[in-house]
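[Q] Does anyone have a clean structure-token version of this?
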Amino acid sequence: MVDGRTARSTATKAKLLEAAREEFQRNGLAGGRVDAIADAAETNKRMIYAYFGSKNALFEEVVADNVRRVGAAVEFTPDDLPGYAVRLYDHWMTDTTSLRLFSWRNVELTTAPEFEDATYRQMIAAIEATGVQRAAGMPASHLLAFVFALVLAWAIPAPAFAEPTDVTPASRHESIATAVRNLVAGAGAADQ
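[A] Here you go.
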């Protein structure tokens, strides 16, 4: 049975995590303020240190939570990487907070939080199990990195690329799917 104190503790931690998600998606780790997080969570900033240990550890927990959310929202299909790429793009277009957190993580962390690292290792192992990396002519980890890079090319395009009239949501879908299909086909397609 959960007592009142445990329930309040769980609720406070969840509020801090959600407030941190908002603060970090706007300002990143370096610009994120613990005072703003605590105020938004309607608690004392000491609770951040009590629950998470440090601002950096809180950011890492927000990153891990973001990876969990994306994993729950976007099915990873190692045997259909073009489809996965389009679904990930669509998710990031509707959940821009997730996209911004992913971007901040790339800028501000030099190592992956444990949960994120484990998730990517599972994705890499799933790609290896399909053998698709052999056709692509590269290790599965490189293939996954390039899939993410191709999605990001349209999720966060340079303004000059985003403005031509031939750029539509449908053309972005097709471009992402085609680029990933070509990547997966690798050297085999180039030889034909």
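[Q] Thanks! Anything notable?
[A] The two ends are 65 Å apart (CA to CA).
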